Amino acid sequence: MMRVVVITGLAQGMGAEVARQLASSGACVAGFDVDEQGLSSLRQELEEGPGEHLLTTLNVCDRGGILEFRDRVLEKYGRVDVVLSNVGVGFFGPFEEVDLEKANRCFEINVTGTAAVLQAFLPSMREKRSGKLVVVSSLVGQIPFPFESIYSASKFAVEGLVQSLRYEVEPFGIQVALIQPAQVSTSFAAKIHELPPEGSPYRERAARFIRRDEELIRTAPDAVTAAAEIVKVVLSPNPRLHNQVDAKSRFFMTLNRVLPRKLRDAILLRQMDIA
User: Fold this and answer.
1) DSSP designation for 197
2) What is the rounded average pLDDT for all residues in the chain?
3) How far is it, in rounded angstroms, from Cα 122 to Cα 68?
4) With contact defined as beta carbons under 8 Å apart, do 21 and 231 qualify?
5) SS3 content of the chain, % helix, strand, coil (to 5)
């Protein structure tokens, strides 16, 4: 039986590559994104593959639209085996200078948007007593980075949401997993890197952080490699709760668990060239 996989945020980057790899394996891919052009291009690619697909343009903040999308998916396929919540936005800047109204949008998309998608598909999974919820978090959901306080907070919230949810849904046969990438060689981080204004006391250190981050991104796993690791989790009969997509993420997660805080902090600040 072909798997039915719902993917949010699949018009480009890792989401698009996960969709391609799953579709090539014969999975039925349903998903949405706000990027209509990227979605149209992906749709054309998937039409040449073996699996079925249902892609639509939709904003994750549209609660009613998510429920309508869910109904269309269940009507077409009769079930959903996996939900992969990949939608998310970044946020960069010194906390003192953060526009909190803009920060609210980050939380609305990253946290409440994720919650809305999971909540929409949970009832059907619970009724058939099987399913898998996979959520893309981040390394910064456990290891906070400077100048990423809002983004880190949103990913900490996502991690708390998923880990709490696990206790509630596992008795119904529903599995839960987190994906925790560090840098992936896509345009995601570059979109949010913006220097503080002239005169900001944080400008010089933020500039060094940005330079270092962009260096790391250039040598990071590409979307194809990262997506292959995510696909393994999606297809695994018994996925781990925490999953990284590259050796560097696994290394830093291990250090975070075993090293004293002062040493962890020193390594992080040196790594990002802001010691």
Assistant:
1) P
2) 93
3) 15
4) yes
5) 55, 15, 35
